[in-house]
Structures are given as C-alpha cells and as structure tokens.
## 1
Amino acid sequence: MVGQVSEAGRAKASAPEYQGALGSLSVNASLAEVLDRGVEELQAAERAGDRREAARCGLAVAEAYRRLGRIEEADRAWKASYRAARSAGHEGAMAWALWSGGTLARQRGALRLAYRLLRLAAEMGERGGDVVVRGYSLAGLAETGRIQGDYAAVGRLHEQLLAEARRRGEARHTVWALEGIAQMHRNTGAYDEALALFEEAAETALRAEDRRGWAWALRGIADVVSVRDGEVERALSLLSRAEETCREMRLSSALAYNHKMRGNVLYRAGRYAEALELYERALEEFREMEEPRGAALSRLGLVKAHARLGRDAAQSAVELAELRSMLDRIGLRHARDMVEKAAAELGVGPLPDDAGGGPGAGGPVLPAGGAEALRTADVKGLR
C-alpha cells in the first residue's frame, strides 16, 4: 500500500466546504481565520440579498464552529445555511448544509440523526450533480458506521471510497479513507497493516500539504507503535508534533483526542498518575464541546488509571457498568467491548447485568435507517 501514494500524493489538498467568497481559503487555514472571514462574508451576502452566497458562507461558518467545539452555534449555522440554500433553490448547497448537520450530529452522538442527514445529503448531492458533496456524505455514512464498530457493514465502502479518491486524485479523501481502514485494522489487532496504512496516510497528507490529516495520521502511528512495540518516547514525540498543528489550527476535537491518546500511551507504560492527568484534561475538553464518544473514552481511561492507583474494585466495577450503559445508549459497540475488556484487565468483572443487553451486547448495532443507508450507498454515482 505504501507505494500507492502517487496520484493523490501529488495533488494538493483542498477544502471544498469553503466556497464562494471563501473559496480561496487554504485547507490549513486556522479556524479562527475561517470563522472571522466566514462571518464577514456571510453578513455581506445577507445585506446583498444573495441567498446562494449566504448558504455557501454559512457552511464555512458552521464547520468552523463545529471544529472549534461551539456546538450550539454550529447547529444554528448549518440550519441557516440550509434555509438560505433552499430559498435559492440550490440543491448542491442544500446537500452541503445537510452534510455539515450530519457530521455535527455524529460528533454529538446522535447517530440515527447523523445517518438520516448524511443519507439525505448524498441523495441531494446526486440530484444536484455535485459529486464532491455526495462523496463527502458517503464517507460520513461510512465513518458513522465505523465508530459504531460494525466493520463488516462499512469495510467495503471504505475501500471503495479509497479507490475512488485515488482515481479522482483527491488527496484529502485518500488520507481520510486510509486512516479509517487503518483504524479498523488497529482495533482488530492487525497492527502491521494498521501501521503501514497510517504511515501512508501521513506521507500522502504531507505531500498534499494537508496538515489536519497529517496530525490525525501521526496520532494513529503513535497509538500503534505504543501498543505493538512499547515505544513510549517515540509515541509521545509523534503526539507532540501533531499537537503543535492542532494548536496552530485550533482543532479542538483533534487536540482532545491527542490528549486522550497521550494518556493511553502513558497508561500502557505504567505511568498511571501522568495518564490520569491527561485523561482528566481530555474529559474536560470533550465535555466542553459536547462530544460524548470522546468523553466516554476519557472516562474509561480515568477508571483504569484510578484502579491502578488503588481505587476500590467495587467502585471501579460500578463506574464501568455506568459507562457500558451509556455506550449502549449511543450504540458504540467497539467502545462497549473496550469496557468489558477493561473489567477483565482490572479483575473487576463480570459487570452487573442491569447495564447489559443493549445494542452493543451482540449482533447488529446499526439503526435500521443507518443499515439501509449503507446498503444502498453507491460510489458509482461519483464517476
């Protein structure tokens, strides 16, 4: 795989969510710059009565708010963008707004809503002849299924989207697909395959000047070299390099996940007190941006670190059971399995049955709408 960088690796990454007057913005523009420019151009479009331009600028504003963790403002912004696009009768702009709303819904843990909005975005993008937003929406559907842990449902779609991104020379989507496939390999214990794909993603992102994708790829590499090889200092160094980019671009979610991963690396190294501080920091960051998945994973790290530092086993079991119940409600099967493994690792299992039996306990975890959306996803529409 590492030798397949060629086409997408030669292309520079672009940010198609920055449109209209904001189309000149780089994919690496800081979110503060995107937000300032976006609000300024949005107000100008509204004064001019240009609804299509208002929809375009509103999309960039919504995405800046979302990535900064300003959830309520992001929610208002994507809806306003959709209304402006609908009043202008522009299906492509409507699709982009729906994509933004679906991505926000996934970030907030509202997965059924995410499937619904992303499926609508894909359909509207096809009707409007916008293959880019259709591709982004299909990728959003695939990522939603992946974070739920249903790899059988989304693995083939990831591979198809990767092939299509390579064919079209879309570096940013190539990086996204490589990282998604790598994460599935990592989570199923195929560390060598995961590392090769994360390294290819990092190389592709670097060539394409995609600093956001590069930072996420470094996080993946750090995770694998830590869990597979026990290379603590190398992992921490990679995370420090990624953190610089996250801070410069003000990537709030990526920074919080970076801190959580640093906690994981320290925990694996037996440096439990240090890990505890990082998990607490990440938990606060995730709570500020209302991101329940990241918050749950940080809480899991906290429970494990506290247990290693001497917390009562019964209390640890209660906290793990609460976490499992919460993850069941969200529908995150892989994260739920991590809780069960943590209970076994800490010697506090089996957990009380009252939290079990949810959607993560076995069998399909995708809601009916999500399963249908993934079943009918067709990458041929991107050609």
## 2
Amino acid sequence: MSNTKKFTAVVVGLGLVTLSACGSGESGSGGSGDSKTVTLVSHDSWVVSKSVLADFEKQSGYQVKVLKDGDAGQAVNKAILTKDNPQGDVLFGVDNTLLSRALDNDLFQPYEAKGADQVKPEYRADQDQHRVTPVDTGDICVNYDKAYFSERDLDPPKTLGDLIKPEYKNLLVTENAATSSPGLGFLLGTAAEYGDDGWAGYWKKLKANGVKVVDGWEQAYNEEFSGSASGKKAGGDRPLVVSYASSPPAEVVFADPKPKTAPTGVATGTCFRQVEYAGLLSNARNPEGGKALIDFMLGEQFQEDMPLNMFVYPVREGAQVPEEFVKYGPQAEDPETMDPAQIAEHRDEWVKSWTSLVLK
C-alpha cells in the first residue's frame, strides 16, 4: 500500500490518505539527531490523527519526525542503499510483495514488539527473527463503476476469469507491475490463481481483451477510472480499475454531500491480500525510540485510528473497524494469498516476463 493519491482536496486510495509530514518534525533528509527525536521513514501514505500522535509523544517523551519517500518500492530501495547510514530509525510500508528484498538486504535489526502476540496469526511473518512487525492489511481488487454497468444493464465482473470475457473488452485499467505496488499485487493474484504455468496465458487473453496499463495507482484511479470522483472530473472512461477493497468507503467518506451508497463496487473474486510491516532499521541512531514507535503502531489506539486515515485494516486482534468499512468496504472472504518465500523466488522473474508479454 504505497501510493499517494489525491481525491478532490483529500488523498485516497489504497485506501490511503496523505498529508504533509506528520508529527512535530518536518519532512527532510537525515535521521534522528538526538535521543528525543525518533524518525519514521515511510512511503507517501502514512497518516495518523494529530491527537493520537500527540498522545504518543506525550506518553513516550519522543518527538516524531516523518520522512516520506515516494511509493513503497522507492522507499524500500532507498532504505537499502542507505542502510549503513539510514535516514531514520523505523521504516514503515514494506509489504509482503517486497518483504524478501528488504530481509535479504539485512535492512532491519530484530525486535519483537510489545503486543506482537496480539497480531492475527495469518499476518505474522519472520517469526524466528522478528525483523518486521505487521501493521495493517488490505485487499487489492478490481473496482467497478456501478453507474456504468447499471445504465447498460450489464452485470459487473466478479472473478479474474470474467475479466477476459468479450463483454468486458476495453474496460479495465491496471497499474504497471514493475512500478506499482497494486499492479504487482494484481499480477501476484493472477499467479496465485492460475499457477506458474497458467498466469502468462491468462495475461495474453487479458491483453487481447483490451486491458490498459498505466504507471501507477494515481493515474489509473484518479484519471482513467470513470467511477471515482477524481476520475469523473478527469473524463476517465474505464469503468474497471485495479484498486482496493477499501476504495468504495473512501469515495463515501470524502464525498460532499455523502451518498447513501458507494458509487463503486468491488469484484471480490479478483482480490489479493496485502500486508504492510514496520521494522527497526539496522544502524538506527535512536533504536529505543524506534522500538517505542513500533510498539505504538501496533497498539490498539493507532490500530483503530488507521482505517479512516490510511483506509487499511488493523492486524491486531480485537481492534474495532469503523462502520463505513463494514458497510462499504468489507475484506474479501477468500482473497488470493502467496507465501513471501514464493514471492521472493519468482517475483523478479514474473515481473520480467509480464513486462515482455504485456508492454511490448
């Protein structure tokens, strides 16, 4: 979940909302310069309510500085290049599609967060070394423009298999799997569904059925997709887009006036589950502050604050989910998943093959 996206005056997507640098520090370069400052390095979409962050700063005695470094891929790659002299103390936003890259490059030092035993078992990772802590989860799914399909008396697609049917020709826009986290997640979802021997054949059919590929989520959702508020303004003409299960509630929450129902829906048979992690950076200048910050992000207050700020789901057992999520953006009941070890083994190969097949 790694994209900064503007939705009217507010940013949404991935179910994510982006503000300027959070906390009492300002965005910039360089790690924590003193023991009272803890620096979080993140993709562009980390957000927390001011009151919640203020509570942490008051209780812990640390001032939080946030450095935002583009999307998840950019943030991870930059953190790897600077790991001997890191920009900060904690990296947030590495997800299960990129986790092996971070771990293989020794990006994090071990730390078992307080409350780690409260993380739902299906979201735990690296349990032998505890180099990362799960923070949130979300489903990458095809979203559809309800009005488009209603006006044409056409049922929206429900599954990956539906997307290659003639009635959906030239309707889908997706993100580049080589440059975009949701694009990569969608590719992994097709690999999970059709296997190593079948995913390429599926994409050949999808390409023949007119799928459009753009660089990132912002262009796909806010410019090409006819169902989003920003897409309508931009004249988007694609009624199907790879986005998130939490995008429909975002369309409701930030609408003025708020509609009674979400203008977009989710094809629940197309979903791939994404999990985001935080880790204490190797050579962090303030490791104690970093540990406190990770504990905070796994705590109940932050976990329940996340959904309507970053439009993701908590990973902590018992954390409450807002009504808007329950009503407009429930998690997929049976999403595609993939073991991080399998992703590590095949990711680069699949992306290279996908690029040759779909973009050339």
